């Protein structure tokens, strides 16, 4: 997972699922990038406490803030973003797809657009750590799916989100507006 430590990014659900999975499957690793000890939003300080408790309990490996997300993506096989933040199209998910990572995210606007269900990943309901646990367990028991679905992520990013394709769509839309 890569995000700021705010509730709407789904950090609580991620930690809850990680705690459950680590008890049952201690060999599974959970990473988080995008936070540091200086980050503290007083109105949500309980999230920081909850997060750093999971770090101290060796549930989550805190990669802190990275200038290049590829460093974190090289260390993972599945990218998780259980967000209900109102993302738009999450750049971190697109970066993970371009690196050939399977995506688990929420069925919310923006996030769902990065997943073809069961093809390159899974969409789970918002605020549902049990659904996240189910997907983790499915992948633990079907590790071949991680590679196959990760390859599909790369194919999807090349077909749908390549910068040339996106730029052509933007230019086409501008022409329609300008010349109508």
Task: Set out the fold topology.
Layout: H1 11-24, E1 31-33, H2 45-56, E2 61-64, H3 70-73, E3 78-81, H4 91-98, E4 102-106, E5 121-124, H5 129-141, H6 144-160, H7 163-178
Parallel strand pairs: 1-2, 3-4, 4-5
Structural account:
- 47% of the residues lie in helices and 11% in strands.
- Helix 4 links the parallel strand 3 and strand 4.
- By secondary structure, the chain is mainly alpha-helical.
- It is globular.
- It contains 7 helices and 5 strands; from the N terminus they run H-E-H-E-H-E-H-E-E-H-H-H.
Oligomeric status: single chain
Report Rg: 17 Å
Counting H and I runs of at least 4 residues, what is the number of helices? 7
Secondary structural class: mainly alpha
Largest sheet features: 3 strands, parallel
The largest sheet has its strands arranged as: 3-4-5
Instruction: Output the helix-strand order.
Output: HEHEHEHEEHHH
Q: Kindly state the number of beta strands.
A: 5
Mean of pLDDT: 90
Categorize the overall geometry: globular
Helix content: 40-55%
Tell me the distance between the termini: 44 Å
Q: Report the β-strand fraction as a percent range.
A: 5-15%
The residue ranges in which pLDDT falls below 50 over 5 or more consecutive positions are none
């Amino acid at each position: 997972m890569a995000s700021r430590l705010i509730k709407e990014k789904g950090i609580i659900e991620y930690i809850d699922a990680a705690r459950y999975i680590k008890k049952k499957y201690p060999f599974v690793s959970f990473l988080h990038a995008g936070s540091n000890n200086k980050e503290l939003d007083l109105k949500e300080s309980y999230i920081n406490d909850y997060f750093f408790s999971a770090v101290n309990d060796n549930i989550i490996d805190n990669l802190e803030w990275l200038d290049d997300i590829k460093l974190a993506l090289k260390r993972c096989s599945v990218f998780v973003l259980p967000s209900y933040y109102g993302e738009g199209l999450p750049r971190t998910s697109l970066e993970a797809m371009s690196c050939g990572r399977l995506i688990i995210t929420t069925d919310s606007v923006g996030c769902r657009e990065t997943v073809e269900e069961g093809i390159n990943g899974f969409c789970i309901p918002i605020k549902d750590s049990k659904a996240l646990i189910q997907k983790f367990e499915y992948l633990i028991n079907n590790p071949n799916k991680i590679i196959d679905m990760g390859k599909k992520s790369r194919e999807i990013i090349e077909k749908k989100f390549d910068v040339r394709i996106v730029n052509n769509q933007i230019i086409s839309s501008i022409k329609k507006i300008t010349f109508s």
